[in-house]
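Weekly puzzle thread! Below is a chain. First person to post its structure in token form gets bragging rights.
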Amino acid sequence: MTDAKTHRCPNCGGFLTFSPNDQKFHCPYCLSIFTEAEITSFAKANPEIVEDADVADTVKIDSTQQVDLYRCSSCGAEIYTDATTAATFCYYCHNPVVLVDRLSGEFAPEKLIPFQMDQKEARAAFTNWIKRKHYVDKNFYNQEQIEKLSGVYFPFWYVQSEGDSDFSANARQIRIWRVGDVEYTETKEYAVHRKNYLKFYHLLKSGLTKNMQQKMFENVEPFDFKALVDFKTPYLAGFQAEKRDIEYNTISEKVKAELAGYGQDLIQAQVNADYQSISNGQLDFNDQISPSYLLLPLWVLTYHHNKKVFYFAINGQTGKISGILPVNYFKLVCHTLLLFSLILAIGLIVGYLI
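Winning reply:
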């Protein structure tokens, strides 16, 4: 059974949502505004106010996929969620619900970055961005589609690492000079050995496999990690959130190899400042890795077209945009032919006049 909670207003009992504009919690009914500390303190003192949603059943869609069915505590509508959904809202009355058992125990995020951009700002950014894309399929940006732009907290593994490194390589230094008509070349071969202490910060790896592309996340980085706050469920109110389904132990070797590669590139670049060429570089990196589980904010819009998934994403903190768009090839070809026809006509007129 899924433990589903809705954070309620201390004054009127209405549901609360988090506002990116002032980083506080708003009640749409009595217009009260609260800080995170006030909401947390009130919830601890009045646990009955944090209302349970009624989880009805687990439903199997096919042999590989199951969804949970819960009944909204405000309007009674039935809402389906899949296995990684950790926060959502009722699509009928917009009552926000946090599925707390999916964000507790071993699945509890350590920290998150709250949204800094609200839905109005995200839609405006999308509209301004899409205006510059002249050959995008119009169904990608019609009003019905824009309304699907969703604020989602995505799970990430946040990796920091430090340790001693030992770099060995063969190096070559070449000097060329000329005396009169004679050119001289001097080549020196060296064995290079460097010891360093390396530190790496802010390496992000997606913690979710579902319908997401790592490239999408990478293209909206970086995040300002100075804004990290301790994870608390009220921050999710009014947004969607996903629970991780990728464990760190399944990607740890890949992370180690990636860190070693970064270290080798860094040291080799330093060595190349002294030598013309480096070959057979080898790095031994005794790293100490500290992974953390975070939730990071993105506004996302997806579109299925011709069996492909296209997306638009905005960093919910910085506003950086990324997207892979469906091209309307008919429109592109028509415009190309029109342009070619105009150029041809102008060429014929100019040729005739000459």
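Puzzle host: Confirmed. Bonus trivia for everyone else. Residues 329-353 form the longest helix (25 residues).
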